[in-house]
Specification:
Low-confidence stretches: 228-237
CATH class: Alpha Beta
Number of helices: 6
Largest sheet: 8 strands, parallel, barrel
Strand order of the largest sheet: 1-2-3-4-5-6-7-8
Structural class: alpha/beta
Order of helices and strands: EHEHEEHEEHEHEH
Helix content: 25-40%
CATH architecture: Alpha-Beta Barrel
Distance between the termini: 25 Å
CATH topology: TIM Barrel
Shape: globular
Length: about 240
């Protein structure tokens, strides 16, 4: 099984505490910062943009995990300043020319992930497996915080692992994104996911003084399969 990695959801990080939060992530060796780029068209919300990304790169050298929830992403790659150290997810549903979009993304030298929504069937991956390094499996419908995991996506994750194994593509990484609680992380890790987007359902619960403890707990869950016994409930957890 691939090593488990955490991608911290910057959508869930309070801007007031951003510098302190990033310092904690560096101390705890968070592998990626997850950047939700939303255009108000592909999803009915606006998210983190190019100026935010540039500013974040000045704060830290932690690689970015850029999730492009935008229409026709192939025409917008240059907007976000993609670097070779980044992981970039584009949605199958966001363009009519997904293979071309992945080809154009290759020019940046980054890791290429294909994101699929909860209701998008796994078979759409068939013809682009040779073009991707990973799959971003959305566990909620993208665009808004505060959603609970779509229950069917757990079984979908199981089917995806088998789908890849049957085609000799076990090297393709599986990222899970959306309501990744400690318990959901435990289940998805046991299935075979290796990259976990953590927000206020896990590592960003409470104030920054709790973040280190939360990260350590998630590391423990991902390593040993131990579920967290309790978690504060918030009315607006981020995905």
């Amino acid at each position: 099984m691939k090593e488990a990695k955490i991608s911290a959801s910057m959508m869930c990080a309070n801007l007031v505490d951003l510098k302190q939060t990033v310092a904690i992530f560096e101390k705890e060796k968070i592998e990626y910062l997850h950047i939700d780029v939303m255009d108000g068209e592909f999803v009915p919300n606006f998210g983190l943009g190019s100026d935010y990304i540039r500013g974040l790169r000045e704060l830290t050298e932690i690689p970015l995990d850029i999730h492009m929830m935008v229409a026709s992403p192939e025409y917008k790659f240059k907007w976000v300043g993609i670097q070779s150290t980044d992981t970039v997810s584009i949605h199958y549903e966001s363009t009519t020319q997904i293979q071309r979009a992945l080809d154009w993304l290759a020019e940046f030298g980054c890791r290429r992930f294909l994101a699929i929504n909860p209701a998008t069937p796994i078979y759409v991956l068939e013809e682009v497996l040779d073009y991707i390094d990973g799959i971003n499996l959305l566990m909620v419908n993208p665009g808004f915080a505060g959603q609970k995991i779509v229950p069917s996506t757990i079984k979908k994750a199981e089917r995806l692992v088998k789908f890849l194994a049957d085609r000799g593509k076990d090297d393709i990484e599986i990222e899970v994104d959306g309501n990744i609680t400690f318990e959901n992380a435990k289940i998805l890790r046991s299935i075979g996911a290796s990259m976990f987007v953590g927000g206020t359902s896990s590592i960003l619960t409470g104030s920054p003084r709790r973040y280190e403890e939360n990260i350590l707990q998630l590391r423990k869950v991902l390593k040993n399969g131990e579920a967290y016994e309790s978690i504060d409930q918030f009315s607006d957890p981020c995905i």
